[in-house]
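Archive record
______________

***
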Amino acid sequence: MANMRLFVVCSVVFPLFAATANADLILGTPLSGFTVLGGSTVTNVPTSAIGGNVGVWSSGGANAITGFNSSPGVAVSDLQVTGTVQAGTPDAATAQGQLTTAINDLNTLSGTLEPADLVGLTLFPGVYIVPAGVTNLSGMLTLDGEGNANAAWVFLMSSTLITSPNSVVDVINTGAGAGVYWDVRSSATIDTDTTFMGNILALASISMNTGATDDCGRALASTGAVTLQMNSLSSGCSGILSGSSGLSGGLTVTPGVDNGPPVVSALPFSAVSAVPEPSNFLFLAICCAGLAIHRERVRRAVSRRPGNASIRRTPASSILCGAVAEEERGCVPS
């Protein structure tokens, strides 16, 4: 019985360290490797910080990149970029094709109509239609995953995507399988010092004004330019979104029946697990090892002790590992 309870305690504790599996990406490879992708040019006013690749590709275009090191047709390094800078490379060309496919896939969806300005809203996973406006976000927008690690939000922007200075997108109560997609039918402007989240898939251009950030997402322009001004963008997220690959989960795409349109579906609900901080791993390991040692000491003491007296055991090790203290027969205090 004691060994069984030990097995149960440790089998509950250690799975908490297993990472939530990433959802299938609507952004294929190599597209998912690009944090910034332009359809004509990419222009940067240094210094920016880009986690991932920067690229540009257009059929017959100049494929020009300024403000980063670049060489036509070759992936090169730049101190502002954790990946590579790719002007007109085969990967950039393939990624542009995949971007077109991803935009077309998202355009098959229908959703709930929201006001032009999303300020002050708390939106749960779903598909939302956002009409054009002077601004689409003049303050805080909260995206609440309701405890679903695979939560997905799709914003179908009827025309442009425009944020006001210092606006914020906050993603809460979700996990590593989540996805946020901004499907922009025209161009996107993320204004000064905006804290943005998610993947911008723009048919035309994307402008990130001075100090704007998107540290869990991408800026992907299909036909136009991406313009950066001392920005921070990354597909490597942190906190509860660590492992979400730039919020590119939440959805699956399957081929349509009889050459019909593709089917975009939400991933099944997956409860967010309370994962202990890495610094607690050693403590939990020692905890369960200590419980095992305690059990062994009890077993040996019982084997040496005559009689069959009922003695209450100490609950200390059980308290450490979260087990329930019980009365046991044939045990001695530690």
